[in-house]
Amino acid sequence: MSSRPFLIGALLAGSAGLVGFGAAGRQGDAVEYTDFGQVRTPTEPAFVAAVEPPSAAPIKEFRIPITHETIEIAKGVTYEGWTFGGTVPGPVIRVREGDLVRIKLVNESPMPHSIDFHSARIPWNEAYRSIMPGEDIEFEFTARDPGVYLVHCGTPPVTMHIMQGMYLAIIVDPKEGWGRGTKVDKEFVIVQSEFYAAPGEGGSARRADWKAAMGKDASHVVFNGRAFQYKAHPLQVELGDRVRFFVVSAGPSFRSDFHIVGAVFDRVYPDGNPDNALVGVQTYTVPAGGGAVFETVFEEGASGVGLYPFVTHAFADAEKGAVGLIQVTDPASVVAEPAPEAR
Ligand SMILES: [Cu+2]
Which of 248, 250, 71 is nearest to 158 (CA)? Predict the structure, then answer.
C-alpha cells in the first residue's frame, strides 16, 4: 500500500495512466477509464497485434459495448458476426496483478449476450448472467492471478456465441514481471479462433453453419480474426529483439499448437503465470479456453534477419488461415536509396 499515494500523485500530475491501446482516461484521479465504444482497435490493414505495457492506475474501468457487425474473416470474405467492442477479436484488455478491474457491459445488439472473464474469481450466476438488448451489467474483480486469459460470451449455445466472434484477450501483468526480470523489446497478442461460415444468400455476407460447428469442420482458422492477415502484413521485429507473444485459444473448439518456424522459445509460461516457466520449447499447445506466454529472441546467428512463419502446427488448421509471418530486419543495414544521378 505504501506506493499508492505516490501512484495517485503521479496520476494527478498526468504522468501516467493513458498508455496502452489508446485508452481514454479521466485525469485527476487514480481510475483509468476506457470506453471501447469510443476506442476501436484498428483492423486495417491487419488487426493491431502489438500491445503496450499497462498503466500505473490501480483501478481500471472498461465499458464494453456488444454489437452485431459485418466483419471480414479472410480477404474479401465478409461474415455476419457478433462482437465485443466492434471487432473480432474484441479489444485487448491489459491490467496489472492487484489492479481492481471494473467492467460495464452494454448490450447494443438485438439479442441476449454475456461476458465471462477467465481471469476473475467471481460468481458465474451474478457477473456472467445474460443481459437483454438495451440492458447493461456492472461488476468488478481484483486481478489477483497473473497471466493471459480468454474472455468470451457465455450465453447458450456457447459454441454459437464464440464462433460468431465474441471473445478477447485479457493480460494480467505479474507484479514482478515475466521472465524473471528479463526485458522484452516487443509484445504481440495472438488470439486463435475458428469460423464455420456458410455462404450467404445471393452473395451476401456469410453466416454461421451450426452443423459444421458441431462436426468441427471449420471453414477458416484464424489469428486475430482474419485468415492469413499477417502473411500479407508481417509482424515487424528488429534484429536483437526479445519478443513476447500472448497467445490465447478462443476456439470455440480448436486448440492452438503454437510454433514459430526457424525459432525456439527460450521460455513458455503456460497460462501466462511466471511460476509455470518452461525452457527450450519448440511447440506448445494452448487449449481451447486457455492462454500462454511465449518468448524468443531474434538475434544475429540465431533467428537473425529474415522471415519466420508462426503457425498452429496442426497443419490442416494452418491451411485454413492460421499462418502469419514475423519479419526481422536490421535497422543498421538499411541503406538510403541512392539518388537517381548516383546510380
Ligand atoms: Cu453472446
Answer: 250
CATH for 4-178, among 3.40.50.1100, 2.60.40.420, 3.30.460.80, 2.60.120.10?
2.60.40.420
Distance 176 CA to ligand 1 centre (A): 35
Under 8 Å between Cβ of 99 and 143: yes
CB atoms within 10 A of CB 230: 22
CATH 1.10.132.60 holds for 186-331: no
pLDDT tens-place string over residues 285-342: 999 999 999 999 999 999 999 999 999 999 999 999 999 999 999 998 866 555 555 4
Distance 135 CA to ligand 1 centre (A): 13
Q: What does the pLDDT look like over 112-150, one tens digit per residue?
A: 999 999 999 999 999 999 999 999 999 999 999 999 999
CA of 166 to the centre of ligand 1 (A): 6
Q: What are phi and psi of 10, to 5 degrees?
A: -65, -40
Every domain of the chain and the residues it spans: 4-178, 186-331
- 114 Cα to the center of ligand 1, angstroms: 6
